[in-house]
Amino acid sequence: MTRSATRAAEGDPRRDAALRAAVIDGCRRLVRDGLVVGTAGNVSARRDADHFLVSPTGTRYEELRSDDVALVDLSGRWHGARRPSSEWRIHRDLYRARPEIGAVVHTHSREATALACTGRAIPAFHYMVAVAGGTDVRCAPYRAFGTQALSEAALAALADRRACLLANHGVLCVGTDVEAALGLAVEIEDLAAKYRIALGLGGVEILSTAQMREVLDRFASYGRQDGTDPDLVHAADPPPGARGDPR
């Protein structure tokens, strides 16, 4: 390895420690939130333009230590005490193709995976489908786990999206950081559960493309404290009763 490559692999110890901790916490939350069982699933965080940190393959999450989180570069070279997740190609290819992505979470959550095992996408049955960035949550076709073919299928399903299902496999979610990707994974599982219930009731109403485009436009400021609403005015004076006002 060249001297410059060695320096890149070493990185900033403090930042690396924080990212490793985020990956480990993310893995443990997958179990706590019921999104995986055993050692299924994986979590990664981008370290820089050329490297990412990813959970190891076949390791119980409660036993993970910082050194177990593998550092992988975009050529497939890895460093660490344990081999990276068998799905490292998906993480590598997403970071290579999508510079805005800071973290990737892969789950086998029950409801969403059940839908994926029927080859179903999650359509616009509810406006919150827009949380994944589009008018639906696509389902990538089945490809064997750990293969380049699966990575390519996942990238296609994630085009202009932050989440997708993987047929007969599970779920992929991306975000600016591990917290955001995990939060999205929980949202997708909740949507999948609601859609499954709606399918059982029959006659599911699907929102139109125009309706979903309106939702996506509104999502541009959704949840932001600096968002605007022409009918909402922030009062500068204290609220009624704050200073003994009986109103």
Report on the architecture of this protein.
The chain has 247 residues and is of the alpha+beta class. 36% of the residues lie in helices and 14% in strands. An 8-stranded mixed β-sheet has the order 4-3-2-1-5-8-7-6, with helices on both faces. The protein has one domain: L-fuculose-1-phosphate Aldolase (3-Layer(aba) Sandwich), CATH 3.40.225. A hairpin with a 4-residue loop joins strand 3 (70-73) and strand 4. Helix 3 (88-97) packs across helix 5 (148-157) and helix 4 (110-116) packs across helix 6.
Question: What are the SSEs and their pairings?
Answer:
Elements: H1 3-10, H2 13-32, E1 42-48, E2 51-54, E3 70-73, E4 78-79, H3 88-97, E5 103-107, H4 110-116, E6 139-140, H5 148-157, E7 163-166, E8 170-175, H6 178-201, H7 209-219
Parallel strand pairs: 6-7
Antiparallel strand pairs: 1-2, 1-5, 2-3, 3-4, 5-8, 7-8
Task: Write a brief structural summary.
The chain is 36% helix and 14% strand. By secondary structure, the protein is an alpha+beta fold.
Pick out its properties:
7 helices; 36% helix; globular; L-fuculose-1-phosphate Aldolase; 247 residues; single chain; alpha+beta; eight-stranded mixed sheet
Residue stretches low in confidence (pLDDT < 50, at least 5 long) are none
Query: What would you call the structural class?
Result: alpha+beta
| Helical stretch tally | 7
Let me know the number of strands.
8
The fourth-level CATH homologous superfamily is: Class II aldolase/adducin N-terminal domain
